[in-house]
Amino acid sequence: MTNEKYPSKQPEQPTLNWWAVYGVCLLISAIFFFVFGLNSPIYTFNSENDYNWFITMGHGLVGGKLPYRDLFEQKGPITYFVTAFCCLFPNPNFTMLWIEIFTMSLFFFFTYRIAKKRLNTFYSLLTVTIMAVLISTSWCRTRSAAVVEEFILPIYAYFLLCWIEFLLDKKDWNWVRALCLGLCFGIILWVKYTLVYFMLVPMIIWLIQSLREKKYRTIILNLLLMVAGVIMITLPIVIFFAANHALSDLIHVYFLLNLTAYGTTDALMVLSSFGVFFVVGPLVLFFIIWGVVRFAIKYWHQRVGWLLLIAFLIDLALLVWSARGSAYYYIGVLPYAIFGIVDLLMIVDKKLTLPRWHKLLFTAITAISLIICIPFSVFTLEWGRGRAAYTPLVVADEIHNYETTNHVSVTLFTYKIGDFGFYNAAGIIPSDYYFANNLFAVDRLPEMYEGFEKSISEQHCDFVITERKTWDTETDFLSQYYQPYHGTIEASTYHYHKMHYFYYREFDFVLLIKKS
């Protein structure tokens, strides 16, 4: 990946200005996300659970409710600040689409920067196009669109660029780069701190290498600048929650509960995470494995090839441990595919001579790649699905009709289920602290389940949505306080086919109304 010369059949090409390169990356990102992003106007509804959870928290924040203190969710506060910003606009989904486009354009820009260390301008931009194809068709992304793992990708790519330049070009990090890396650490810390796994091993290797070379002054200066960057991100967050008397809630939920109660310790579930690794998709897997292995072999004699291999294997092990079977965690390994793409394009570069109309050729390849992606992207299965196909929208229509008929504003509670988008579709901010079922087992967070039952027994909300199987098993309890909205449980049951990985998963939901 260094700038060393290699045999090429290509004529010299002028280097594009950074803003021109970024413009191309932004355009590619906009085109691909407009077609393969669930927040695009061509899709009726973004049904993904995590995304809807975040938007619900954003609406709550705009409405005066603080995360962790008033509404329970365990992701980092930056996530909710971003979604709250989106909720300031009439169409939060469309605003989020542009945030997705922007963050992915940064990822593509750093992908180009990494590729440019071995390829000419044409093939470096082609690397961006291929990466857009991989992201658009990767099965791990189809599990959840617009999740934090996706937004962290530009940070991962930037860090990979810095690390590769340190290993191969022997390029020390200047004060600007060290400060930027600190800012990146700070962002990850307050978005989802477990995602720091990607940067952990390379940072340890950087420290060991620098110590071996006795660069003590550089180490101290860089570490201080990184700490300064983390503080620059952390301080406003701490001040905000402290000023609103919610700092202890932030620490308790985001750090303590995530460390001690979230997820599972089931060994089989942990081991199954390795199997889920394969849902990144066969093409992505090929580029990742090919790139990491080829890099390790090619630069083994420089004593750096094996460092990347070690970093990847440890990253994968940490990822498997933390994923607990959640496929979207594996979005974080996508940057390693850059090495495979670059290596294969180097082979093509040596065999083929580019025509003079290579700019037109790049445009044609990008357009054809977009078309090829359509049958291979699971998102396109959502094309043409109307409102009637999405139970959250159908339930929202039922609630709005009730409000219009009775001239009242009502409240809603999702009982022992995830968010699913019911709050967002109905335009309702939750009134209960435990407003949806998170991934906390009963024995690990009993107060959440006690909160669910308290919300029912005290009839906190006018409407309740839950799964039919929950109603069937808890009829004696639920029927004391709520009844089927349409008189019978059959009439109040909604069948929902929700996209899940590369297939549709069936749910039966029941809408209940408070008894007088």
* Backbone CA Rg: 25 Å
* Averaged pLDDT: 88
Structural class: alpha+beta
- The total tally of domains equals 2
Count of individual beta strands? 5
Assign a percent range to the helix content: 55-70%
Order of helices and strands: HHHHHHHHHHHHHHHHHHEHHEHHEEE
Instruction: Note poorly predicted spans.
Output: 265-274
In percent terms, what proportion of residues is strand?
Answer: 5-15%
Biggest β-sheet strands, sense, barrel: 5 strands, mixed
Distance between the termini: 70 Å
Number of helical segments? 22
* Shape, principal axes of CA atoms: globular
Characterize this entry briefly.
This protein is an alpha+beta fold. It folds into two domains: 105-381, no CATH class; 387-514, no CATH class.
Descriptive terms for the model:
alpha+beta; 2 domains; globular; single chain; 5 strands; 516 residues; five-stranded mixed beta sheet
Walkthrough of the structure:
Helix content is 60%, strand content 6%. The chain contains 22 helices and five strands. The chain is of the alpha+beta class. The termini are far apart. A hairpin with a 2-residue loop joins strand 4 (493-500) and strand 5 (503-514). Strands 1, 2, 3, 4 and 5 form a five-stranded mixed beta sheet that branches. Helix 4 (92-115) runs parallel beside helix 8, helix 5 crosses helix 16 (337-351) and helix 13 (267-276) packs across helix 15. It folds into two domains: 105-381, no CATH class; 387-514, no CATH class. Mean pLDDT is 88; it is low at 265-274.
